[in-house]
Design goal:
Layout lengths: L2 H18 L3 E3 L2 H25 L1 H6 L4 H16 L3 E3 L2 H20 L1
Antiparallel strand pairs: 1-2
Helix pairs in contact: 1-2, 1-5, 2-4, 4-5
C-alpha cells in the first residue's frame, strides 16, 4: 500500500474518531491530513525519547503508562495542528485507544 493511500486511510480514521469521541474535533479533511502528518512526526521523533525516559514507570505499570503517553501525544498533536482539537485527557485517552485500533487494522491490510 502506498504511503499516500495509508495517510488517506489514517485521515479518514481521525475523522471517524472525531465523530465517535465527543472531545475531539476536526474541521476539514485537509486538517485531518495535516494532523496525520504531525502525528507521524511526533511518533517518529518525540515518542521514542519519551518512552525511554519513562521506561521505569512503564515497567512498574506493566505497560499501561503507554496509554497515558499516547494520550498526551495526541493532545500535543491537537495543540500543534490548526483545525484539530482535543479538549480533555479522557477524550485524548479514548481517542488514542481507538486510533491505535484503526492503525492496527490499516497496517494489516
Amino acid at each position: 500500500m502506498s504511503l499516500f493511500l495509508r495517510w488517506l486511510c489514517y485521515a479518514l480514521a481521525i475523522i471517524f474518531v472525531s465523530w465517535i469521541i465527543p472531545g475531539i474535533e476536526v474541521s476539514s479533511f485537509l486538517n485531518a491530513m495535516l494532523a496525520v502528518i504531525i502525528i507521524a512526526l511526533i511518533n517518529t521523533f518525540i515518542k521514542p525519547l519519551i518512552q525511554i525516559i519513562t521506561l521505569p514507570v512503564n515497567i512498574l505499570t506493566l505497560g499501561l503508562f503507554s496509554l497515558v503517553i499516547n494520550a498526551l501525544l495526541l493532545m500535543l498533536a491537537g495543540y500543534l495542528t490548526p483545525g484539530f482539537e482535543v479538549e480533555g485527557f479522557l477524550s485524548a485517552l479514548f481517542g488514542s485507544i481507538l486510533m491505535s485500533l484503526f492503525t492496527l487494522g490499516i497496517s494489516r491490510i
